[in-house]
Design a protein that fits this description.
The longest helix is centred in the middle third of the chain and has 28 residues. The protein is an alpha+beta fold. It is built from ten helices and 21 strands. Helix 6 packs across helix 8. It has a six-stranded antiparallel beta barrel with strand order 6-9-10-11-14-13. Strands 1, 2, 3, 4 and 5 form a five-stranded mixed sheet that branches. A four-stranded mixed sheet has the order 12-18-17-15. It comes from Paramuricea clavata (Red gorgonian). InterPro entries: a-kinase_dom, Alpha-type_PK, Kinase-like_dom_sf. Keywords: ATP-binding, Kinase, Nucleotide-binding, Receptor, Serine/threonine-protein kinase, Transferase. GO terms for molecular function: ATP binding; protein serine/threonine kinase activity.
Length: 432
């Protein structure tokens, strides 16, 4: 009987060891890289998921052993450009969380889900399991009823572990007297709006496969009205969006009628607006590259530029654009019909050189017009194409004045030194 029992114990021991080896074998597929999906720092939507940010990426993994710390170190090295002094990578079990603290908590190593959050948030998460363990240790003691002979303290007693916690490196916010007095009243919560964002990659010529949910606080006061849209300022608390003020642009009622008249949906037209904006931005970058290639950047001075832009979908299904706010006074240099605006300043000359360059660079197929903004920071461009339609589809937006805008610009434009610095010459023949 003793021999049989000993044999049974040996068999069980071998079985446990085999499980350990099998657990390590499931990580053998990892060689030099791991697949990582970055998620948003906060949950959004009804499902309370962390939304995906861009496509999955291959992260180099040059470690002999697969451990939780090694995976996190590889991710932080790869996302170093996105990390700030007070942020770090937080590995999640899945798109709905929770945060992982060990390798065993990661259900599937084929795809690592992570988000970038503040270190203080990670510290608060790592302390909670310690409190649970401490309470479990207490619960194992025998429950003996005793009469209390001392008052109950309302403050939690500090354990010996608290001495090892590092002090915070953050500094308290310096409040003015006005803000201090405001705290004496109930601070009303600002109404927020969830906007689903989608970005366009002009290098790959494709849209992001999925929308990313972001929470914005939109100021109801209109900050500007154009021919097609009205603009509202907005802010977001998301880590990669909280450093700028944003502008949400919505269509006017007459603009929606014009879009419908051209057999387009608001979504299709808004996507074209984003693509058109990024095309103008690409022309501005190519012009800068050409000037630098000719070693004329010091003479040319500051270059015209466009900020980034996103397609947005509101809760009610309305399609908008979301772009960075441009500070300063507004000026229009070239109208969407090709007419030159205002006096011939050096900034307008640079704007003319951009329109001229886009026409030559596109082999006389289109031109960037409706150039406007604050100094050299531009927004809301239009593209005038030589042809209005292609394959029974209207090109660009409803503000496309086609060849008439190109003809008007060519007739009014006189090349300046800024055209010469980029290698442009006068129009030989006015486009007709």
């Amino acid at each position: 009987m003793a021999a049989a029992w000993k044999e049974f114990k040996t068999a069980m021991k071998e079985k446990k060891n085999s499980k350990k080896t099998s657990n390590t074998k499931k990580f053998d597929w990892i060689k030099d890289e791991i697949v990582v999906q970055q998620l948003s720092s906060e949950v959004c939507g009804k499902a309370q998921k962390y939304s995906r940010m861009g496509p999955r990426v291959f992260v180099p993994f040059h470690y002999d052993e697969v451990t939780f710390d090694n995976i996190k170190a590889a991710c932080e090295r790869f996302f170093k450009s996105k990390l700030k002094n007070n942020t770090c990578c937080d590995i999640l079990a899945r798109e709905q969380g929770p945060s992982c603290q060990s390798l065993e908590q990661i259900p599937n190593l084929k795809v690592i889900h992570l988000r970038i959050i503040e270190k203080a948030e990670v510290d608060s998460q790592t302390q909670s399991p310690q409190l649970e363990v401490h309470s479990k240790e207490k619960s194992t003691r025998p429950n003996i009823n005793r009469r209390r002979t001392h008052p109950i303290s309302l403050q939690p007693q500090q354990s010996a572990r608290s001495t090892s916690v590092k002090s915070s490196c953050t500094f308290p916010k310096s409040l003015s007297v006005v803000h201090m007095l405001k705290l004496g009243k109930v601070i009303k919560e600002k109404p927020s709006t969830i906007i689903e964002l989608s970005s366009f990659d002009i290098n790959q010529m494709e849209w992001s496969p999925e929308f990313c949910c972001l929470e914005f606080v939109i100021n109801p006061v209109v900050i500007g009205v154009g021919g097609f849209r009205k603009a509202f300022s907005a802010t977001s608390r998301r880590d990669d969006f909280n450093t700028s003020t944003w502008v949400v642009k919505k269509y006017l009622a007459n603009a929606l009628e014009n879009i419908k008249a051209t057999n387009q949906t608001p979504e299709q037209h808004t996507r074209k607006v984003v693509q058109m904006h990024l095309l103008a931005r690409n022309f501005a970058k190519q012009l800068q590259q050409e000037v630098c290639k000719r070693n004329n950047e010091e003479v040319y001075g500051e270059f015209m530029s466009y900020s980034n832009i996103y397609l947005g979908k509101m809760d009610d299904g309305e399609f908008v654009t979301v772009e960075e706010f441009v500070k300063g006074s507004f000026d229009k240099y070239i109208n969407n019909d090709g007419t030159l605006c205002g006096t011939s300043t050096y900034i307008r000359m640079k704007a003319e050189s951009l329109s001229h360059y886009s026409y030559v660079r596109s082999h006389e197929k289109l031109m960037v017009v409706d150039i406007q903004g604050s100094s050299h920071k531009l927004f809301d461009p239009e593209i005038a194409s030589y042809e209005l339609q292609e394959d029974d589809e209207y090109l660009f937006s409803t503000g496309n004045m086609t060849f008439s805008a190109i003809t008007t610009f060519a007739r009014e434009h006189n090349c300046s030194i800024y055209c010469e610095l980029v290698g442009l010459t006068e129009f030989e023949n006015t486009p007709e």
